[in-house]
Amino acid sequence: MTAPASAQAPAIPVLSVTDLQVFYASRAGDIKACDGVTFDLRRGEILGLVGESGSGKSTATSGIMKAIAPPGRIAGGRILLDGEDITDFGEAEMRRRRWRKLALIPQSAMNSLNPTMTIAAQIADVITEHEGRQEAAALNHRILDLFQRVGLPSRINAMYPHELSGGMKQRVCIAMSIALNPAVVIADEATSALDVVMQRVVAQTILKIKDELGVSFIMIGHDMGLMAQVVDRVAVMYSGQLVEIADVAKIFAQPAHPYSAQLIAAVPSLTERRPMVISAGVTHDPHNPPSGCIFRLRCPHAGAICAEARPALTQISPGQSVACHLWQQDESKAYVRAPV
Amino acid sequence: MSAPLFDIRGVSKIYGPAATGLVALDDFSWTIHQGDARIVTIAGESGSGKSTLGELLLRSSRPTTGEILFEGEDIWSFNAARTRDYFRQVQAVFQDPFGVYNPFYRIQHVFDMVVRNFGLTRSPAAARTMIDDAMTAVGLNAGEILGKYPHQLSGGQRQRVMIARAIMLKPKFIVADEPVSMVDASLRASILDVLMKLRDDLGISFLYVTHDLATAFQVGDEIILLYQGQVVECGNAHDVITNPQHPYVQLLMNSVPRADPNERWPGHVELPAEEALRTANAVGCRFAARCPQRMPRCDAATPRRAGVGPNQHLAACFLYG
Amino acid sequence: MMAGLAQSPWLNRKLVSGAGILAAILLFGLFGRFFWDTDLVFIGSAPVNLPPLGFENMRGQLSAAGHPLGTQSDGRDMLALMIVGAPNTLLIGAIASVIGITIGTVLGFSAGFIGGWVDAVIRVISDVMITIPPLLVLIVFQTSLGEIGIFTMGLLLSTFMWQSPTRLIRAQVLAMREQGYVRMARLSGASTRDIMFRELMPNLLPYLFGSFIAIATTAIVTAVGLEVLGLGPQRVPTLGRVIYESIESAALLKNMWWWWGIPTLMLATIFIGLLLINLGLDQVSNPRLRKV
User: Fold this and answer.
1) Number of H helices, E strands in chain B
2) Residues spanned by the domain of C167
3) Residue B303 to residue B227: CA distance in whole angstroms
C-alpha cells in the first residue's frame, strides 16, 4: 500500500533475469514456452507477473527456480539471485538456495499440505530440513512468531489441514515460504481459489510481510484488478514473451502495449453495466508462432513492420518499458505512440 | 394461471444429525415463473450454500426439510419417466471445464449421449443438424470441434461445448455452477455473453452460482447473496450491487479489487480467529461474529428480511427490521 | 490418425520389443511344427543323451544333425519339446490371466461401483486370499486331483490370480466414480450400466492391460514352480515339466546342461518379454517416462 519505489537509487536488484529461454522439446519441434524474458526484481518490491494461461509466466518462474524437468530445458539466459549467478548451478547447489533465498508458494498450495501432519509439524519440517536440528523451545517460538506474522491464531499449530478454511491454509503456506527468511518469494496464483474477502486478507498479509520483513515477491496472476491493489510493478507476458513492464500507476493510467490495455479492459466493472470486452485468447499454434511480433495476430494496430521484426523491450519513460513497434522516438528523443 | 417453473419452499439441507448437524442451507424459499426468462445469481463465499442449492435442484441431494416444486410437482415424487422428462427441462453446466469430459472419447460423444438417451431423433442427419444449431448458438463451429479430443480445446471452448450440450434439449432452466471461475479472466466475458444471449433468444433461465461479484453484476437480473446458508440480501441485481445494505454485502463490495491503483482497499480486514460452525441448533445472525455493526439482539434471533434501499430490495439485518 | 500412430506412445521401444519377443516365441511354437517333426517329443523317438550341435556329452558322443538342440535320457528331442512346450507354458499363463482378469473386473467393478455390503464381502475375500501363499494351496489341490490337463491347470491357477486385479479395479472405480464426466453422464440420462461400460471401462483399459501382463507373469512363475515339483500336466510337455524331468533324471550329475538349460533360457526369454511389455505399458500410461 506504499508508493512504488521506482525513485530509489539503483541498488542491486535481489533477482535479475536476463534473456531467459525455456523450451519444451516435442516431436514437432521446440515449443518456446519462455522466449527471452528479461526483468529485475528490486529489494522490498512486489512484482506482478500477469498473463493468460499459456503465457509462460509459471514456466518463467520454474526456470528461475531451476525446476524445469525434461522434456523442458533452460535453453539460454542468465539468472542472478542476490548478486550470485545461479544460471549454471546444479541440483545440489540449487537445493541449498531454495527456501532459504528463494521460496515458492505453488498453485493450489493449500492442497499440497500434508493431511496427516499437524501444521506446526509441517513448518518444523521445513525449518529442520534446511537448517538442521533445532532446539525445541526455540523452534516452537519461531513457529508461533511466523503465525503471528501471517495473522493466524496460535492454536492452529496443533490442528490438521482439513480443519482449516481455504484462506487459513493459504496463509499457512505463506508462513512456510517465509520460514527461512528468503529474499524472494514467488507466489503462483496464491489467491485464485479464494473468495473475495479471503483474497483481500491474503493479499494484505503479503503486503504486511513485504513491509515488515522486506521480502520481495513475484505475484503471478491473471486478475489485473488484484494486481492494481497489491503490486508495485507489473510485468505482462504473452505467449512466452514479456511485452510490457511498468510501475503500477503508469500501466493503469496509460497501458503502453495493446495487450496490457486488453487485459485491463477485461476486468468487469462493479460500478457500471457495460458490454464486456470479449477476448480471443492465445490464438496461434505454439509450434508455429507468428513472425515478428508475437502479438500481431490479435493486435488491432498491427502494421507491416510488426510482421518483419520482433520488437525489443525498450524503456519509453522512467518506470515503463514496452516491446511494441507503435512506440517510436520523435525528434526530441522522447517516445511517442504513432501508428505503424 | 400456471404453476411457477420452480417453487422452492422452506428448503433446508443439514448434514449430520437434525439437531446438531452442519446447516448448508437454511430455510430457503424462492420462486421463478414460467415465461420469465432471467439470470438469477446466487452469490456467496465458499461454504455459503450456493452449490448446495444447485445440487438440490439437480436432484443430486435431497432436502432435509421443505420441498422443491417444478411446475407444481415435487421433484422427489417423480418416477423414472418423469425424471427423464425433468432433465429435459433442467440441465447444468459445471465449474471444471476439463473433468466433465471423458478423456477417452472425442467431443462428439458428449452430444451422442444426449441424443441417444433422450431419444431426440433416430436419424443421424437430424442429430447432426441439432448439434450444429446448438454449437452455433454458443459461437462455435461444429465441424472443427466435434472430431477433437477434450485436451485439444481451450478451457473457454470446452465450457462453451458444455453449454451447447445443455441447450440441445431446449431446457427451460440451466444451473450454471461457477461456469467461468476456472476459465481465464479474459475469456470469461465471451462465455457470460453466451448465457445472456441464450436468455434473450431461447428464453432459458439460469441459476448462475458464483463467488465473483463483478460478473454477477454484469450478468444477473436478480441476485441472492448467501452467507453460511442464509439469505442476507436479495433483489434486483442493479439495486443490490449499487446500494448494498447488509454489512456482509458491503464488506464484499469493498473487497472486490478495483483495477485502479489509486483506489486501493480501504482499511484492514480482520477475520475472527474462530469461525463458528453453523450447527442446526445455533441461534442468531450467522454474520454477527464478523460484523462491524454487531448489536446484542444479533445473537438472540435470526433477522427477517425487510425492504431496504430506494427500490426496496430485501436485506436480512436487524439494522433494518 | 495413421500419422498419429507413427508417433503414438504405444510404439515405444520397450513395448514393441517385448511384444516382439513373445510373438517370436509364439510363432516358433505355432509354426515350428510345420518345419520340425513334433512326434519327436514322444519317448524313445530319438537316440538318448545327445548334446546340442557343436558340443560333446560326458561320454564323448558328438551331436547328431537331426537333433540340433540335443536329446534327453528317454529319447525325446529337445527342439521338439521346446516347440510344443513353450506355447503350452504361455497358454497356461494366458488362461489363468484371462479368467483372473475377467473375475477381477466383474468383482472390482461391483465392489467399487455398487459399494455397501457387496463391496465389504468382495473385499474381505480378496484381501484374505492375498495373504494365502498360492503354492501351498495349489500343491494340496493338485495332489488330490492327480492328472490334469493344460486348461485345468490354468483354471486352478486363476483362483489365485483374480485378487490383485479386483483390488486395483476397485480402487480405480472408486476414484473415477466421482469424476465430473460420470456426473455429466447421469445428467445426460445414462443408466448405471451405461456408465460402467461406456464411460468407466474404456478408461480402465490401460490398467487392465498392465494387470493382465502382471498376472500372466505371476501365473507362469507359479505354474513353473508347480511343474518343477512334479505337479502340473504330465501328459503334455511344458517348460517346467522338462526341467522337472531333468532334475529327476539327475541331469546335473550327468552334465546334461542342455536339458535344464535350454528350457530355463526359454523361460528367461519369456519373462524378459513380459517385463518389457510391462515397462512399455508404463510409458504409455505415464507420459513423463517417455523420451522425446
Assistant:
1) 10, 12
2) 25-44+77-287
3) 13
Instruction: Determine contact: A25 vs chain C, CB below 8 A.
Output: yes
Contact A25 C288 (CB under 8 A): no
Q: Which residues of B touch C188 (CB under 8 A)?
A: 110, 113-114, 117-118, 165
Q: Output the domain CATH number for residue A260.
A: 3.40.50.300
Name the minimum distance, in Å, from the CA of C288 to any CA of chain A.
Answer: 8
Q: Kindly determine whether residue C292 and residue A25, on different chains, have CB atoms separated by under 8 Å.
A: yes
**C127 belongs to a structural domain:** yes
What are chain A's partners, defined as 3 or more CB pairs within 8 angstroms?
Answer: B, C
> What pLDDT, on a 0 to 100 scale, did the predictor assign at position A79?
92
Q: Tell me which residue of B13, B14, B16, B19 sits closest to B282, measured CA to CA.
A: B19
Contact C75, C122 (CB under 8 A): no
Q: Which three cell numbers stand for residue B49?
A: 450454500
For residue C114, give the H/E element and its range: none
Question: Number of structural domains, chain A?
Answer: 1
Query: Which residues of B are less than 8 Å from C183 in CB distance?
Result: 60, 94, 100
Question: Does residue A306 sit in helix, strand or coil?
Answer: helix
Residue C190 lies in a domain: yes
Structural domain including A38 reads 15-101+182-337
C187: which chain B residues are within 8 Å (Cβ-Cβ)?
Answer: 58, 87, 91-92
Quote the minimal CA–CA distance from C290 to chain A in Å. 9
Highest mean pLDDT among A110-119, A253-262, A263-272, B294-303: A253-262
Give me the residue from C184, C189, C202 closest to B118, CB to CB: C189
**CATH code assigned at C172:** 1.10.3720.10
Output the pTM of the full model. 0.78
Residues of B in contact with A278 (CB under 8 A): 189-190, 193
Cβ count within 10 A of residue B147: 11
H or E element at residue C20: helix C13-35
With CB atoms and an 8 Å threshold, state whether C187 touches B110. Answer: no
Q: What is the dihedral sign for C-alpha C119, C125, C130, C134? A: negative
Q: What percent of chain B has a predicted confidence (pLDDT) above 70?
A: 96
Between residues A12 and B276, the one the model is more confident about: A12
Domains along chain B with CATH numbers: 6-256+278-316 (3.40.50.300)
**Which chain A positions have a beta carbon within 8 Å of B256's beta carbon?**
196, 225, 270
Render pLDDT for A154-186 as a digit per residue (tens, 0 to 9).
Answer: 888 888 888 887 778 888 999 999 998 899 999
Q: A27-37, pLDDT tens digit by residue?
A: 788 888 899 99
What is the gyration radius of the CA atoms in chain A, in angstroms? 21
In a domain, C221, yes or no: yes
In-domain check, residue C67: no
CB contact under 8 A, B270 and A151: yes
C192 contact B CB<8A:
no
Beta strand ranges found along chain C (DSSP E): none
Q: How is residue A3 written as a grid cell? A: 508508493
* Position A2 in a domain: no
The reply to whether residue B186 touches residue A199, judged by beta carbons under 8 angstroms, is no
Which residue of chain C comes nearest to A69, CA vs CA? C288
pLDDT in tens, A190-248: 887 777 888 888 888 899 899 998 999 999 988 888 999 999 999 999 989 999 999 99
Q: What is the ipTM of this complex?
A: 0.81
Count of domains forming chain C: 1
